[in-house]
Amino acid sequence: MPLSRRPTLTQYLIEQRRRFPQASGELNALILDVSIACKAIAQQVALGSLVNLPVAGATNVQGEVQKPLDVVSNEMLLRQNEWSGHLAGMASEEMDEPYPIPSQYPRGKYLLVFDPLDGSSNIDVNVSVGSIFSILRTPDEVVKSGRDVTEADFMQPGSTQVAAGYAIYGPATMLVLTVGYGVAGFTLDPALGEFKLTHPDMQVSQDTNEFAINSSNSRFWEPPVKRYVDECLAGSNGPRGKDFNMRWIASMVAEAHRILMRGGVFLYPRDNKDLARNGRLRLLYEASPVGMIMEQAGGRCSTGRQAILGVVPTALHQRIGLIFGSKNEVERIENYHRDPAKRDAPNPLFVERGLFRD
Ligand code: F6P
Ligand code: MN
């Protein structure tokens, strides 16, 4: 299809809204504001080291060093979304506390939660990064009273998300979005400054022979994860009977995008590295939105023990074990977690085949 005939993000959203004649258009307006912030972030990211010099001593709530671009991206999302009247509050990886919409602006019926620059360690080496966001409803009582949002107002499971999406800043900038009716991908036309619909119905393939995990943590993995990876590594000689490929970008958004495009499974599981934290990635603004996107694309997203979308958060910056991607593969890993007999022992098939080796 010629580029000029591809629908824009605005057109796509208007068409989605026609499903709900009573909808006010606020969600659309909110998503468009998020997309404008993403375009602005894309421009900054493209300047690379021209703008991203370290800020001495600045760390975020999780003790990670903050880069100017983390802070700049956070500001861009805040400023672009605080004035419109669609939100009651925002929360971000880069802010310790929730951000209530300042009193000079009207407050609205949605909450916006985001990681403004995911995988930001990749900035220094000019590798893809992204922004990821989740849209929740403001609790009725907050809408009625108009009070400031608190952490408790964000403690909603991923299954209640109204929309979720990410922008990936790679060789091309893309926005991938779900409003609950499948997943659509848009590519930024830099000449027009518009996101154009290039991937109308993104689907995650059910099967894959590609996995992604930071294997430097292998000594800390729990037995089901160890078993899964061992079986992949054993390739065509092992119980899976096929060879696997491995990738690790260290940017969850970029890994999610690769998996949407060509299948795969991503694991950042709960492990024994630091017992105080239950995984590496954050539930509200990493796992939940990626969970909605994966499930809407026919994939699966799990802790290994339960669907991510069913987890009720207990803290704004809560971490969680995260496994997502091709459905059959994620279900296999869930089965390994479920089956206590096999969980701690090596796969019997594999042992059997091992007998034929010396
Ligand atoms: O936001 C956290 C994050 O940067 C993810 O994007 C990425 O998947 C992960 O951390 C990388 O972790 P590690 O540095 O352990 O490979
Ligand atoms: Mn992140």
Summary of the model, kept short:
By secondary structure, this protein is an alpha+beta fold.
Overall description:
- With 358 residues, the chain is an alpha+beta fold.
- It folds into 2 domains: 3-199, Fructose-1,6-Bisphosphatase, Chain A, domain 1, CATH 3.30.540.10; 210-343, D-Maltodextrin-Binding Protein, domain 2 (3-Layer(aba) Sandwich).
- Helix content is 31%, strand content 20%.
- It contains 10 helices and 15 strands.
- The protein has helices at 9-17, 26-46, 68-81, 140-145, 223-234, 252-262, 283-296, 327-338, 340-343, 348-354; strands spanning 87-92, 99-100, 110-118, 129-137, 163-169, 173-178, 184-189, 194-199, 210-213, 245-246, 265-268, 281-282, 300-302, 319-320, 322-325.
- The strands form 3 sheets. It has an 8-stranded mixed sheet with strand order 2-1-3-4-5-6-7-8, with helices on both faces. A 5-stranded mixed sheet has the order 10-9-11-15-13, sandwiched between helices. It has a two-stranded antiparallel ribbon with strand order 12-14.
- It is globular, with a radius of gyration of 21 Å.
- Mean pLDDT is 92; it is low at 343-358.
- It binds 6-O-phosphono-beta-D-fructofuranose and manganese (II) ion (MN).
- 6-O-phosphono-beta-D-fructofuranose binds next to loops.
- Residues 93, 115, 118, 252, 286 line the site of manganese (II) ion.
